[in-house]
Amino acid sequence: MENLIIIGTGCAGFTAAIYAARANLTPLILAGNMPGGQLTTTTEVENFPGFPKGIMGPELMMNMQAQAERFGTRIEYSLVTGVKKVPAGHFEITTDDGTVRETRAVIVATGASPKHLGLPNEKQLIGRGLTSCATCDGAFYRNVPVCVIGGGDSACEEASFLTKFASTVYLIHRRDSLRASKIMADRALANPKIKPVWNSTVIEYLTDEKGEMRAAKLQNLLTKEETDLDVKCVFVAIGHVPNARFLGDLVDVDENGYILQTRGTLTKTEGLFAAGDVADHVFRQAITAAGQGCAAALEAERYLAVQGVH
Ligand code: NAP
């Protein structure tokens, strides 16, 4: 029987592991199919405290992993397919290879995956002019045109943020009005640097000779007319999918599928804690995920102490 299984290896998961390992809980991390989480898909991280010159996202995650392992964290690379709380009070965690592991406590730190359009070359373009995080990557596109896809709060927020850097921010939306809250929509549309492109969708990403984003091919959904829009970066803001479905009824989720925490990182199931983007659709930052990972580990430590595990 494990003391603590942490599901996920983003900032929340590794920070939880560092704290739990230093508390002698010898946590086991189950890494899933995207080891390192969303930061492994970005380039330079300039806003994580402690790195005044910035740090590459993958390097930051490798450092977190090394720090977690230094104190005795074990990592296994298998995808969790189900979690069950048994009447005896502990959990059974099933992975895709059919293995069932028992544990007294669980921290879910599985993050959220940004949605993409499903265009053919988008995987190769991530980090080369295609991203879902203006806060992470906006500052790399100074005085050049960029575009944001989407019409919700995220799209408006990203577009407004990007006007600090970009020469023009095209806001490409498939309808003729924004879904975003009025205040965020009004703010975005009042910004002279933001140019809405209504009733349009991106049908192809066009690249230059280096394989970097050069333009987005747009189609007007009413006229079917196609145009190439020169942009150095496309910010996709069409929503995220929190990776929480495998938990079934163990957690309550909001209308977008994010886990509802009852207090701090606690969930409705005793002994099961949630940290980071799987439960946070508001901040979605590496540092806030790390903070929640720390909190979840401290909560798990308290929970286990009550059960006599020290
Ligand atoms: P969202 O509200 O679900 O909006 C997604 C947008 O993307 C919609 O405009 C949608 O178009 C569009 N879209 C979806 N699939 C698409 C596709 N395949 N092709 C083209 N467009 C597509 O997502 P969100 O903006 O990420 O917001 C999620 C939640 O977080 C919301 O509750 C939001 O209020 C909240 N949030 C709050 C803040 C804040 O308050 N500061 C900031 C960000 C997010 P349609 O409109 O046509 O459906």
Structure characterization notes:
This protein folds into 2 domains: 179 residues, FAD/NAD(P)-binding domain, CATH 3.50.50.60; 121 residues, FAD/NAD(P)-binding domain. The model has no long low-confidence stretch (mean pLDDT 95). The strands form 5 sheets. Strands 1, 2, 5, 6, 7, 8 and 19 form a 7-stranded mixed β-sheet that branches. Strands 10-17-11-12-13 form a 5-stranded parallel β-sheet. It is elongated and about 65 Å long. Strand 14 and strand 15 form a beta hairpin. Helix 1 runs parallel beside helix 2, helix 1 runs parallel beside helix 7 and helix 5 packs parallel to helix 6. The protein has 310 residues and is an alpha/beta fold. It has 7 helices and 19 strands. The site of NADP nicotinamide-adenine-dinucleotide phosphate has 18 residues, from helix 5.
SSE blueprint and pairings:
Elements: E1 2-7, H1 11-22, E2 28-30, E3 44-45, E4 55-56, H2 57-70, E5 74-76, E6 80-85, E7 91-95, E8 100-108, E9 112-114, H3 122-125, E10 130-131, H4 134-137, E11 145-149, H5 153-162, E12 168-172, H6 182-190, E13 194-197, E14 200-207, E15 213-220, E16 226-230, E17 233-236, E18 240-242, E19 272-274, H7 286-306
Bound molecules: NADP nicotinamide-adenine-dinucleotide phosphate.
Residues 117, 149-155, 157, 174-175, 179, 201, 237-239, 256, 281 line the site of NADP nicotinamide-adenine-dinucleotide phosphate.
